[in-house]
Amino acid sequence: MSQGEAAGRGSAKPQDQGWAWMVLLAAVVLQGLTLGFPCCIGVFFTDLQHEFQASNSQTSWFPSIMVAVLHGGGPLCSILVKRFGCRFVVMLGGLLSGLGMVSSSFCKSISQLYLTAGLITGLGSCFSFQAGVTVLGYYFVRWRTLANAVASTGVSLGFTLWPLLSQYLLDKMGWRNTFLIFGGILLNCCVCGAIMRPIQLASGSLLESAKPEGEAGSRAEEAQLSNGASPQHPTLQQHTRRTKCFQMLQKYLAFDIFCQNKGYQIYTIGVTWMMMGFALPHVYLVPYAIHNGVEERKAALLISIIGLINIFIRPVTGLLSGHRVFTGRRIYLFSLATLLCGLSNFICVISAEFSVLILYCVILSIAMSGVGALTFQVLMDVVEMDRFSSALGLFTILESITLLIGPPLTGLLVDITSDFHYVFYNSSFFLISAALFMGLSFCALEKQNKLRESSKACLDIPSRYQYSETSTEPKAESQSPPAVQYITSI
Protein backbone atom coordinates (compact mmCIF):
# COMPACT_ATOMS: atom_id res chain seq x y z
CA MET A 1 0.00 0.00 0.00
CA SER A 2 1.38 3.41 -0.94
CA GLN A 3 1.66 6.30 1.49
CA GLY A 4 -1.09 8.16 -0.32
CA GLU A 5 -3.43 5.22 0.00
CA ALA A 6 -2.54 4.84 3.66
CA ALA A 7 -3.27 8.49 4.30
CA GLY A 8 -6.60 8.18 2.57
CA ARG A 9 -7.66 5.08 4.47
CA GLY A 10 -6.44 5.92 7.95
CA SER A 11 -3.40 7.07 9.86
CA ALA A 12 -0.98 4.64 11.47
CA LYS A 13 -0.85 4.36 15.25
CA PRO A 14 -3.45 7.04 16.14
CA GLN A 15 -4.19 5.48 19.54
CA ASP A 16 -4.53 7.74 22.58
CA GLN A 17 -3.63 10.90 20.70
CA GLY A 18 -4.70 13.33 18.02
CA TRP A 19 -7.80 12.21 16.16
CA ALA A 20 -8.66 9.70 18.90
CA TRP A 21 -10.06 12.53 21.04
CA MET A 22 -12.32 13.64 18.20
CA VAL A 23 -13.58 10.06 18.01
CA LEU A 24 -14.23 10.17 21.76
CA LEU A 25 -16.25 13.37 21.36
CA ALA A 26 -18.25 11.70 18.60
CA ALA A 27 -18.86 8.72 20.91
CA VAL A 28 -20.21 11.02 23.63
CA VAL A 29 -22.67 12.59 21.17
CA LEU A 30 -23.52 9.16 19.78
CA GLN A 31 -24.44 7.74 23.18
CA GLY A 32 -26.56 10.78 23.95
CA LEU A 33 -28.42 10.38 20.65
CA THR A 34 -29.00 6.63 20.96
CA LEU A 35 -29.09 5.41 24.56
CA GLY A 36 -30.51 8.67 25.86
CA PHE A 37 -33.34 8.82 23.34
CA PRO A 38 -35.78 6.19 24.74
CA CYS A 39 -36.02 8.10 28.04
CA CYS A 40 -38.11 10.84 26.39
CA ILE A 41 -40.85 8.50 25.14
CA GLY A 42 -42.77 8.87 28.39
CA VAL A 43 -43.38 12.52 27.49
CA PHE A 44 -45.51 11.38 24.53
CA PHE A 45 -47.28 8.57 26.38
CA THR A 46 -50.54 10.43 27.13
CA ASP A 47 -50.74 12.08 23.69
CA LEU A 48 -50.25 8.76 21.91
CA GLN A 49 -52.94 7.17 24.06
CA HIS A 50 -55.43 9.88 23.11
CA GLU A 51 -54.41 9.89 19.45
CA PHE A 52 -54.83 6.14 18.91
CA GLN A 53 -57.33 5.40 21.70
CA ALA A 54 -54.87 2.86 23.08
CA SER A 55 -54.59 1.33 26.54
CA ASN A 56 -51.57 1.64 28.81
CA SER A 57 -50.45 -1.85 27.84
CA GLN A 58 -50.76 -1.19 24.10
CA THR A 59 -48.92 2.12 24.32
CA SER A 60 -46.10 0.74 26.44
CA TRP A 61 -45.23 -1.85 23.76
CA PHE A 62 -43.79 0.96 21.66
CA PRO A 63 -40.94 2.00 24.03
CA SER A 64 -40.50 -1.61 25.16
CA ILE A 65 -39.76 -2.82 21.63
CA MET A 66 -37.35 0.07 21.08
CA VAL A 67 -35.36 -0.63 24.26
CA ALA A 68 -35.42 -4.41 23.78
CA VAL A 69 -34.06 -4.17 20.23
CA LEU A 70 -31.50 -1.60 21.35
CA HIS A 71 -30.14 -4.04 23.92
CA GLY A 72 -30.70 -7.34 22.12
CA GLY A 73 -29.35 -6.51 18.66
CA GLY A 74 -25.72 -7.03 19.71
CA PRO A 75 -25.00 -10.27 17.85
CA LEU A 76 -26.38 -8.87 14.57
CA CYS A 77 -24.36 -5.69 15.05
CA SER A 78 -21.29 -7.83 15.73
CA ILE A 79 -21.66 -9.69 12.46
CA LEU A 80 -22.04 -6.43 10.51
CA VAL A 81 -19.02 -4.87 12.21
CA LYS A 82 -16.87 -7.88 11.31
CA ARG A 83 -18.03 -7.72 7.71
CA PHE A 84 -18.18 -3.96 7.01
CA GLY A 85 -16.34 -2.18 9.84
CA CYS A 86 -17.46 0.18 12.60
CA ARG A 87 -17.80 3.34 10.54
CA PHE A 88 -20.25 1.79 8.07
CA VAL A 89 -22.38 0.25 10.84
CA VAL A 90 -22.58 3.53 12.79
CA MET A 91 -23.74 5.40 9.69
CA LEU A 92 -26.18 2.63 8.77
CA GLY A 93 -27.63 2.88 12.27
CA GLY A 94 -28.03 6.63 11.89
CA LEU A 95 -29.95 6.17 8.64
CA LEU A 96 -32.23 3.54 10.18
CA SER A 97 -32.87 5.65 13.29
CA GLY A 98 -33.76 8.72 11.25
CA LEU A 99 -35.91 6.71 8.83
CA GLY A 100 -37.78 5.09 11.71
CA MET A 101 -38.70 8.37 13.38
CA VAL A 102 -39.64 10.11 10.12
CA SER A 103 -41.88 7.17 9.24
CA SER A 104 -43.40 7.31 12.74
CA SER A 105 -44.67 10.83 12.13
CA PHE A 106 -47.02 9.42 9.45
CA CYS A 107 -48.31 6.41 11.41
CA LYS A 108 -52.08 5.87 11.52
CA SER A 109 -52.15 3.26 14.30
CA ILE A 110 -50.20 2.31 17.40
CA SER A 111 -49.20 -1.00 15.80
CA GLN A 112 -47.42 0.89 13.01
CA LEU A 113 -45.37 2.65 15.67
CA TYR A 114 -44.19 -0.75 16.87
CA LEU A 115 -42.54 -1.30 13.48
CA THR A 116 -41.24 2.19 12.72
CA ALA A 117 -40.16 3.76 16.01
CA GLY A 118 -39.90 0.49 17.91
CA LEU A 119 -38.13 -1.92 15.58
CA ILE A 120 -36.44 0.29 12.96
CA THR A 121 -35.32 3.11 15.25
CA GLY A 122 -34.35 0.65 17.99
CA LEU A 123 -32.25 -1.41 15.59
CA GLY A 124 -30.61 1.70 14.17
CA SER A 125 -29.77 2.96 17.66
CA CYS A 126 -28.29 -0.44 18.50
CA PHE A 127 -26.04 -0.40 15.44
CA SER A 128 -24.82 3.16 16.03
CA PHE A 129 -24.24 2.80 19.75
CA GLN A 130 -22.55 -0.58 19.88
CA ALA A 131 -20.34 -0.01 16.84
CA GLY A 132 -19.43 3.42 18.24
CA VAL A 133 -18.31 1.92 21.54
CA THR A 134 -16.41 -0.83 19.74
CA VAL A 135 -14.32 1.66 17.80
CA LEU A 136 -13.16 3.24 21.08
CA GLY A 137 -11.35 -0.02 21.81
CA TYR A 138 -9.30 0.54 18.66
CA TYR A 139 -8.53 4.22 19.20
CA PHE A 140 -7.66 3.96 22.90
CA VAL A 141 -5.25 1.57 24.59
CA ARG A 142 -3.60 3.35 27.49
CA TRP A 143 -6.61 5.58 28.19
CA ARG A 144 -9.29 3.06 27.29
CA THR A 145 -10.93 3.01 30.74
CA LEU A 146 -11.05 6.81 30.85
CA ALA A 147 -12.41 6.96 27.31
CA ASN A 148 -15.27 4.59 28.10
CA ALA A 149 -16.08 6.51 31.29
CA VAL A 150 -16.16 9.83 29.43
CA ALA A 151 -18.23 8.35 26.61
CA SER A 152 -20.82 7.08 29.09
CA THR A 153 -21.52 10.65 30.18
CA GLY A 154 -23.28 11.04 26.85
CA VAL A 155 -26.04 8.78 28.17
CA SER A 156 -26.60 11.09 31.13
CA LEU A 157 -26.57 14.14 28.86
CA GLY A 158 -29.20 12.46 26.70
CA PHE A 159 -31.31 11.70 29.77
CA THR A 160 -31.12 15.37 30.71
CA LEU A 161 -31.74 17.05 27.35
CA TRP A 162 -34.11 14.74 25.44
CA PRO A 163 -37.11 15.11 27.80
CA LEU A 164 -36.79 18.91 27.93
CA LEU A 165 -36.52 19.15 24.15
CA SER A 166 -39.40 16.70 23.71
CA GLN A 167 -41.76 18.65 25.95
CA TYR A 168 -40.86 21.96 24.29
CA LEU A 169 -41.42 20.64 20.76
CA LEU A 170 -44.57 18.78 21.81
CA ASP A 171 -46.09 22.00 23.17
CA LYS A 172 -45.15 23.98 20.05
CA MET A 173 -45.97 21.62 17.18
CA GLY A 174 -47.48 18.30 18.35
CA TRP A 175 -46.06 14.80 18.47
CA ARG A 176 -46.06 14.12 14.72
CA ASN A 177 -43.91 17.12 13.82
CA THR A 178 -41.74 16.40 16.85
CA PHE A 179 -41.07 12.87 15.63
CA LEU A 180 -40.21 14.30 12.21
CA ILE A 181 -37.65 16.63 13.79
CA PHE A 182 -36.29 13.76 15.87
CA GLY A 183 -35.64 11.87 12.64
CA GLY A 184 -33.42 14.72 11.47
CA ILE A 185 -31.62 14.89 14.82
CA LEU A 186 -30.87 11.17 14.84
CA LEU A 187 -29.33 11.46 11.37
CA ASN A 188 -26.43 13.17 13.13
CA CYS A 189 -25.32 9.65 14.05
CA CYS A 190 -24.07 9.50 10.46
CA VAL A 191 -21.88 12.55 11.11
CA CYS A 192 -20.45 10.85 14.21
CA GLY A 193 -19.80 7.72 12.14
CA ALA A 194 -17.98 9.72 9.47
CA ILE A 195 -15.54 10.92 12.14
CA MET A 196 -14.74 7.33 13.15
CA ARG A 197 -12.40 6.56 10.28
CA PRO A 198 -10.76 3.12 10.12
CA ILE A 199 -7.42 2.54 11.82
CA GLN A 200 -4.43 1.22 9.90
CA LEU A 201 -2.21 -1.41 11.43
CA ALA A 202 1.55 -1.24 11.18
CA SER A 203 1.39 -4.05 8.62
CA GLY A 204 -0.71 -1.85 6.34
CA SER A 205 -4.04 -3.59 6.81
CA LEU A 206 -7.06 -1.95 8.39
CA LEU A 207 -7.77 -3.10 11.91
CA GLU A 208 -11.50 -2.65 11.57
CA SER A 209 -11.58 -4.68 8.40
CA ALA A 210 -9.50 -7.51 9.79
CA LYS A 211 -11.12 -10.88 9.34
CA PRO A 212 -11.71 -13.21 12.27
CA GLU A 213 -8.76 -15.40 13.05
CA GLY A 214 -10.51 -18.60 12.13
CA GLU A 215 -12.06 -17.33 8.93
CA ALA A 216 -9.19 -18.34 6.67
CA GLY A 217 -9.09 -21.78 8.23
CA SER A 218 -12.83 -22.21 7.96
CA ARG A 219 -12.76 -21.18 4.31
CA ALA A 220 -9.99 -23.69 3.59
CA GLU A 221 -11.96 -26.36 5.38
CA GLU A 222 -15.05 -25.42 3.41
CA ALA A 223 -13.17 -25.64 0.12
CA GLN A 224 -11.73 -29.00 1.10
CA LEU A 225 -15.13 -30.32 2.05
CA SER A 226 -16.64 -28.92 -1.12
CA ASN A 227 -14.08 -30.70 -3.24
CA GLY A 228 -14.39 -33.92 -1.33
CA ALA A 229 -18.14 -33.83 -0.79
CA SER A 230 -19.74 -34.56 -4.10
CA PRO A 231 -23.52 -34.77 -4.62
CA GLN A 232 -23.18 -38.36 -3.41
CA HIS A 233 -22.33 -37.07 0.11
CA PRO A 234 -25.16 -34.78 1.25
CA THR A 235 -24.78 -36.05 4.82
CA LEU A 236 -21.28 -34.59 5.04
CA GLN A 237 -22.50 -31.23 3.76
CA GLN A 238 -25.35 -31.16 6.27
CA HIS A 239 -22.92 -32.02 9.06
CA THR A 240 -20.69 -29.13 7.96
CA ARG A 241 -23.59 -26.70 8.05
CA ARG A 242 -24.63 -27.89 11.52
CA THR A 243 -21.06 -27.54 12.74
CA LYS A 244 -20.85 -23.98 11.42
CA CYS A 245 -24.16 -23.04 13.04
CA PHE A 246 -22.99 -24.50 16.35
CA GLN A 247 -19.70 -22.59 16.10
CA MET A 248 -21.58 -19.35 15.43
CA LEU A 249 -23.83 -19.90 18.45
CA GLN A 250 -20.83 -20.79 20.58
CA LYS A 251 -19.05 -17.64 19.43
CA TYR A 252 -21.84 -15.12 19.97
CA LEU A 253 -23.98 -16.88 22.62
CA ALA A 254 -21.91 -18.52 25.32
CA PHE A 255 -24.24 -21.30 26.47
CA ASP A 256 -21.25 -23.35 27.63
CA ILE A 257 -20.23 -20.59 30.03
CA PHE A 258 -23.80 -20.33 31.31
CA CYS A 259 -23.87 -24.07 32.08
CA GLN A 260 -20.39 -24.30 33.62
CA ASN A 261 -19.77 -20.96 35.37
CA LYS A 262 -22.01 -20.66 38.44
CA GLY A 263 -21.14 -17.01 38.97
CA TYR A 264 -22.13 -16.09 35.41
CA GLN A 265 -25.27 -18.19 35.71
CA ILE A 266 -26.42 -16.47 38.92
CA TYR A 267 -25.59 -13.00 37.66
CA THR A 268 -27.31 -13.46 34.28
CA ILE A 269 -30.48 -14.82 35.87
CA GLY A 270 -30.50 -12.05 38.47
CA VAL A 271 -30.04 -9.21 35.97
CA THR A 272 -32.58 -10.72 33.58
CA TRP A 273 -35.15 -10.87 36.39
CA MET A 274 -34.19 -7.35 37.52
CA MET A 275 -34.91 -5.90 34.09
CA MET A 276 -38.59 -6.81 34.44
CA GLY A 277 -38.87 -3.88 36.84
CA PHE A 278 -35.88 -1.68 36.10
CA ALA A 279 -37.36 0.16 33.10
CA LEU A 280 -40.84 0.72 34.55
CA PRO A 281 -40.16 4.14 36.16
CA HIS A 282 -38.69 5.45 32.91
CA VAL A 283 -41.84 4.54 30.99
CA TYR A 284 -44.52 5.39 33.54
CA LEU A 285 -43.11 8.17 35.77
CA VAL A 286 -44.25 11.03 33.50
CA PRO A 287 -47.76 9.57 32.89
CA TYR A 288 -48.06 8.90 36.63
CA ALA A 289 -47.16 12.48 37.51
CA ILE A 290 -49.57 13.93 34.91
CA HIS A 291 -52.32 11.57 36.09
CA ASN A 292 -51.90 13.00 39.60
CA GLY A 293 -52.17 16.64 38.54
CA VAL A 294 -48.52 17.59 37.93
CA GLU A 295 -48.07 20.05 35.05
CA GLU A 296 -46.72 18.43 31.88
CA ARG A 297 -43.56 20.54 31.78
CA LYS A 298 -42.75 19.72 35.39
CA ALA A 299 -43.44 16.04 34.76
CA ALA A 300 -40.94 16.00 31.87
CA LEU A 301 -38.42 17.71 34.12
CA LEU A 302 -38.40 14.67 36.42
CA ILE A 303 -36.59 12.50 33.84
CA SER A 304 -34.12 15.31 33.20
CA ILE A 305 -33.32 15.46 36.93
CA ILE A 306 -32.42 11.76 36.84
CA GLY A 307 -30.09 12.35 33.89
CA LEU A 308 -28.48 15.46 35.40
CA ILE A 309 -27.54 13.69 38.63
CA ASN A 310 -26.24 10.72 36.64
CA ILE A 311 -23.73 12.99 34.90
CA PHE A 312 -21.90 13.58 38.17
CA ILE A 313 -22.61 10.43 40.18
CA ARG A 314 -21.90 7.72 37.61
CA PRO A 315 -18.19 8.57 37.06
CA VAL A 316 -17.65 8.85 40.81
CA THR A 317 -19.31 5.49 41.33
CA GLY A 318 -17.11 3.93 38.68
CA LEU A 319 -13.94 5.31 40.26
CA LEU A 320 -14.89 4.19 43.77
CA SER A 321 -15.82 0.69 42.65
CA GLY A 322 -12.43 0.37 40.98
CA HIS A 323 -10.63 0.74 44.33
CA ARG A 324 -8.78 -2.36 45.51
CA VAL A 325 -10.92 -2.46 48.64
CA PHE A 326 -13.84 -3.64 46.47
CA THR A 327 -11.86 -6.25 44.57
CA GLY A 328 -14.03 -9.36 44.37
CA ARG A 329 -16.90 -7.57 46.14
CA ARG A 330 -18.43 -5.52 43.34
CA ILE A 331 -21.35 -7.92 43.05
CA TYR A 332 -22.41 -6.91 46.55
CA LEU A 333 -22.23 -3.21 45.64
CA PHE A 334 -24.31 -3.97 42.56
CA SER A 335 -26.88 -5.85 44.64
CA LEU A 336 -27.00 -2.98 47.13
CA ALA A 337 -27.61 -0.44 44.34
CA THR A 338 -30.36 -2.65 42.90
CA LEU A 339 -31.94 -2.96 46.35
CA LEU A 340 -31.90 0.83 46.77
CA CYS A 341 -33.60 1.21 43.37
CA GLY A 342 -36.37 -1.10 44.52
CA LEU A 343 -36.85 0.56 47.90
CA SER A 344 -36.94 4.06 46.37
CA ASN A 345 -40.11 3.18 44.45
CA PHE A 346 -42.12 3.21 47.67
CA ILE A 347 -41.63 6.99 47.81
CA CYS A 348 -43.95 7.36 44.82
CA VAL A 349 -46.56 5.19 46.54
CA ILE A 350 -46.55 7.46 49.58
CA SER A 351 -47.23 10.67 47.66
CA ALA A 352 -47.39 12.01 44.09
CA GLU A 353 -46.65 15.64 44.92
CA PHE A 354 -44.00 17.24 42.73
CA SER A 355 -41.59 17.88 45.62
CA VAL A 356 -41.85 14.24 46.71
CA LEU A 357 -41.29 13.05 43.14
CA ILE A 358 -38.13 15.17 42.96
CA LEU A 359 -36.84 13.42 46.08
CA TYR A 360 -37.67 10.10 44.45
CA CYS A 361 -35.75 11.05 41.30
CA VAL A 362 -32.68 12.05 43.30
CA ILE A 363 -32.54 8.76 45.23
CA LEU A 364 -33.39 6.68 42.15
CA SER A 365 -30.70 8.42 40.11
CA ILE A 366 -28.01 7.73 42.72
CA ALA A 367 -28.98 4.06 42.81
CA MET A 368 -29.19 3.86 39.02
CA SER A 369 -25.69 5.30 38.76
CA GLY A 370 -24.39 2.38 40.76
CA VAL A 371 -26.26 -0.15 38.63
CA GLY A 372 -25.10 1.45 35.38
CA ALA A 373 -21.47 1.78 36.44
CA LEU A 374 -21.17 -1.77 37.77
CA THR A 375 -23.24 -3.90 35.38
CA PHE A 376 -20.48 -4.80 32.96
CA GLN A 377 -17.65 -4.51 35.46
CA VAL A 378 -19.22 -7.30 37.52
CA LEU A 379 -19.62 -9.37 34.37
CA MET A 380 -15.90 -8.93 33.71
CA ASP A 381 -15.24 -10.17 37.24
CA VAL A 382 -17.13 -13.44 36.78
CA VAL A 383 -16.13 -14.26 33.17
CA GLU A 384 -12.68 -14.56 31.65
CA MET A 385 -11.91 -11.67 29.31
CA ASP A 386 -11.18 -13.91 26.33
CA ARG A 387 -14.83 -15.07 26.49
CA PHE A 388 -16.33 -11.78 27.61
CA SER A 389 -17.72 -10.84 24.20
CA SER A 390 -19.59 -14.14 23.88
CA ALA A 391 -20.85 -14.01 27.46
CA LEU A 392 -22.12 -10.47 26.94
CA GLY A 393 -23.99 -11.55 23.80
CA LEU A 394 -26.14 -14.05 25.71
CA PHE A 395 -26.42 -11.64 28.65
CA THR A 396 -27.87 -8.79 26.55
CA ILE A 397 -30.28 -11.00 24.62
CA LEU A 398 -31.79 -12.45 27.79
CA GLU A 399 -32.17 -9.05 29.44
CA SER A 400 -33.76 -7.65 26.27
CA ILE A 401 -36.55 -10.24 26.55
CA THR A 402 -37.57 -9.03 30.01
CA LEU A 403 -37.13 -5.41 28.96
CA LEU A 404 -39.62 -6.15 26.19
CA ILE A 405 -42.36 -7.78 28.24
CA GLY A 406 -42.02 -5.91 31.55
CA PRO A 407 -43.72 -2.57 30.75
CA PRO A 408 -46.63 -4.04 28.73
CA LEU A 409 -47.49 -6.56 31.44
CA THR A 410 -47.45 -3.81 34.05
CA GLY A 411 -49.52 -1.60 31.74
CA LEU A 412 -52.09 -4.39 31.49
CA LEU A 413 -52.26 -4.52 35.27
CA VAL A 414 -52.78 -0.74 35.40
CA ASP A 415 -55.55 -1.01 32.79
CA ILE A 416 -57.33 -3.66 34.85
CA THR A 417 -57.01 -1.91 38.21
CA SER A 418 -56.88 1.77 37.08
CA ASP A 419 -54.19 2.27 39.72
CA PHE A 420 -50.72 3.55 38.73
CA HIS A 421 -49.33 2.46 42.09
CA TYR A 422 -48.95 -1.06 40.69
CA VAL A 423 -46.17 0.27 38.45
CA PHE A 424 -44.01 0.95 41.47
CA TYR A 425 -45.15 -2.14 43.38
CA ASN A 426 -44.10 -4.30 40.44
CA SER A 427 -40.80 -2.49 39.98
CA SER A 428 -39.96 -2.86 43.67
CA PHE A 429 -40.83 -6.56 43.67
CA PHE A 430 -38.54 -7.44 40.76
CA LEU A 431 -35.67 -5.21 41.87
CA ILE A 432 -35.67 -6.23 45.54
CA SER A 433 -36.05 -9.95 44.80
CA ALA A 434 -33.25 -9.79 42.20
CA ALA A 435 -30.95 -7.96 44.62
CA LEU A 436 -31.54 -10.50 47.38
CA PHE A 437 -31.12 -13.43 44.99
CA MET A 438 -27.77 -12.20 43.63
CA GLY A 439 -26.36 -11.09 46.97
CA LEU A 440 -27.29 -14.24 48.88
CA SER A 441 -26.37 -16.58 46.02
CA PHE A 442 -22.91 -15.12 45.60
CA CYS A 443 -22.41 -15.21 49.36
CA ALA A 444 -23.31 -18.90 49.39
CA LEU A 445 -21.13 -19.54 46.34
CA GLU A 446 -18.19 -17.83 48.01
CA LYS A 447 -18.57 -19.97 51.13
CA GLN A 448 -18.86 -23.10 49.00
CA ASN A 449 -15.65 -22.20 47.17
CA LYS A 450 -13.80 -21.64 50.43
CA LEU A 451 -14.89 -25.05 51.70
CA ARG A 452 -13.84 -26.67 48.44
CA GLU A 453 -10.45 -24.94 48.53
CA SER A 454 -9.81 -26.00 52.11
CA SER A 455 -10.79 -29.62 51.40
CA LYS A 456 -8.58 -29.79 48.32
CA ALA A 457 -5.66 -27.77 49.65
CA CYS A 458 -3.55 -30.87 50.09
CA LEU A 459 -4.09 -31.79 46.43
CA ASP A 460 -3.45 -28.22 45.25
CA ILE A 461 -6.52 -28.26 42.97
CA PRO A 462 -7.99 -24.80 42.32
CA SER A 463 -11.72 -24.21 42.59
CA ARG A 464 -13.52 -24.50 39.32
CA TYR A 465 -16.07 -21.81 39.98
CA GLN A 466 -14.04 -19.41 42.03
CA TYR A 467 -15.48 -15.91 42.08
CA SER A 468 -12.29 -13.89 42.04
CA GLU A 469 -11.07 -10.96 40.04
CA THR A 470 -7.63 -12.51 39.70
CA SER A 471 -9.03 -15.33 37.55
CA THR A 472 -10.40 -12.92 34.97
CA GLU A 473 -7.20 -11.13 34.02
CA PRO A 474 -6.73 -11.11 30.24
CA LYS A 475 -4.04 -13.29 28.83
CA ALA A 476 -0.93 -11.84 27.24
CA GLU A 477 -2.22 -12.46 23.74
CA SER A 478 -5.55 -10.85 24.57
CA GLN A 479 -4.25 -7.38 25.42
CA SER A 480 -5.39 -5.89 22.13
CA PRO A 481 -9.04 -4.88 21.92
CA PRO A 482 -11.40 -7.57 20.70
CA ALA A 483 -12.58 -7.27 17.14
CA VAL A 484 -16.17 -7.01 18.28
CA GLN A 485 -17.78 -6.12 21.58
CA TYR A 486 -21.38 -6.10 22.64
CA ILE A 487 -21.73 -3.08 24.89
CA THR A 488 -24.98 -1.83 26.34
CA SER A 489 -25.70 0.59 29.04
CA ILE A 490 -28.36 0.95 31.62
From TrEMBL:
Residues 218-237 are annotated as: Disordered. Pfam families: MFS_1. GO terms for molecular function: monocarboxylic acid transmembrane transporter activity. Residues 20-451 form the Major facilitator superfamily (MFS) profile domain. It is found in: Membrane. It is a multi-pass membrane protein. Coiled coil: none annotated. It comes from the Eukaryota. Keywords: Membrane, Transmembrane, Transmembrane helix. Residues 224-237 have a biased composition (Polar residues). The chain crosses the membrane at residues 21-45, 61-81, 88-106, 112-139, 146-165, 177-196, 266-287, 299-320, 332-351, 357-379, 391-410, 422-445. Its main location: membrane. PROSITE patterns: MFS. GO terms for cellular component: basolateral plasma membrane. PANTHER family: MONOCARBOXYLATE TRANSPORTER, MONOCARBOXYLATE TRANSPORTER 6. This is MOT6 protein. It comes from Cinclus mexicanus (American dipper). The gene is Slc16a5.
